[in-house]
Amino acid sequence: MSEETMSDKIEFIDQTIRDAQQSLWGMTMRTEHMLPIAETMDKVGYLSIATVGSQAFTVQVRTLHEDPWERIKALSKLITKTPIRGSYVIGSLSSFDLSTPRDIISLWVKRSVANGTSLPATESILKNAKRLGFTSDLDEDALAAVSEHFKKIAETEGYPIGAPMEYDVFHYEHQVPGGMMTNLTRQLKEVGMQDRLDAMLEEVVHVRKDLGYPVMATPYSQIVGAQALENVISGERYKNFTDEVVKYVLGLYGEPAAPIDKDVMEKVMNSPQAEKLKNWKPANYEASVEELRKQYGPELSDDELLLKICIPGVPTKPSDKKPAPPPKKIVQPSFGDYPAEFDVDVDGETFRVRITPASNGTEAVTAERSTETKKGSKQAPPGSVLCGMAGLVLSFNVKIGDTVSAGDLIAMIEAMKMRRPINSPHGGVVQEIWANEGEIVSPEDVLMVVV
């Protein structure tokens, strides 16, 4: 481009409530965090403001118990000058199973438009751009107000604040995106394996190589990451395959960028999943919106129908929704990197011990009897099969009275946007099923009892 046509003016697309909160906060920014500052964001002068993609809808509904359509409507009323953007996965919405009906994808995009629909800090980029001779029309006072607002949110909620990372060549080997890194860290913590993150990332390198180096972007990064997580949790590489990896090997996601490892290809093709999925076609893929409405509920609005199909296991009626969780009150002591609160067991009695800074600069310690009981702290009955991961129970492959052997598939759970198999750790007869289809479970929850 010639000097005459090259512009020294740069434009900014704001990602604060899209990629930034996805990468740092796991999409847990609530609507109440956004609305008070929305009008100020509109004054900054961004080229556009990114909101959320379809994957964030799942977190918003299941975790935050919010109506995603109401968020978009509320933001569009407050942000009137700056275009707001969304992003969508063509092929699926709340997960990567390729099964979302085509007309539902079209309706989702239309409804998002009708409702108004981890990157470097703008301040840093703007400062450096000026040093390089570029200009911008951003209102820096409004930008500073936006930055201060979300900094206070982070402090109140105990969320991390982004900071430049040291150069690490390992990032270029595993290439795990920021938002996915947050999810992997959380899931490893949920199964008590947070110390295995480096091993998990090393496994990502192996799996990506074995699958022919798929690009580490949605949905391929999740396909690689979910399989790597499965390998680490099971303790054996490719002991189990996710359905998405099987579909990938079968070519349902298109041709791989490079040849798939021969041993992995052979193991996948000889698996029962491959036999089951080789002629797989998504149910209702060609069904019209009206046909699906008859199936799921003629009384449902477009917005309710979309949530019913794309985010199973959650209520669609406003009256069924749980209230949003109250803001966390995080104690952040200034006297060092030590926990501010403990549960201490003394001769069978639990006391809550809290350490707070005193006015004279020393630490004050108080104790109170804890009335909380941790979920899953009760002794599980003999033969219990634990969920082992946090997620949504999609289906059971057995019923009470069935005889199972060790390693048999007994249930499917959706975790990290993937369908993940639950195999029985031992043989026996299914005596009880504790969970329900469509229920959100934790790793320590009892799924069923097999004796």
CATH topology of the largest domain: TIM Barrel
Q: Percent of residues in helical segments?
A: 25-40%
Q: How many domains make up the 3D coordinates? A: 4
Tally of strands = 14
Structure class: alpha+beta
Strand order, largest beta sheet: 7-14-12-9
Strand content bin: 5-15%
Q: What is the 3D form? A: globular
The N- and C-terminal alpha carbons lie at a distance of: 73 Å
Radius of gyration: 24 Å
Key structural traits:
38% helix, globular, four-stranded antiparallel β-sheet, TIM Barrel, 16 helices, 4 domains, 451 residues, Cyclin A, domain 1, single chain, alpha+beta, 14 strands
Describe the structure.
With 451 residues, this protein is of the alpha+beta class. It has 4 domains: 13-157, TIM Barrel (Alpha-Beta Barrel); 170-277, Conserved carboxylase domain (Cyclin A, domain 1, Orthogonal Bundle), CATH 1.10.472; 331-372, no CATH class; 384-450, RNA polymerase II/Efflux pump adaptor protein, barrel-sandwich hybrid domain (OB fold (Dihydrolipoamide Acetyltransferase, E2P), Beta Barrel), CATH 2.40.50.100. 38% of the residues lie in helices and 15% in strands. The chain is built from 16 helices and 14 strands. The strands form 4 sheets. It has a 4-stranded antiparallel beta sheet, with no helix packed on it.
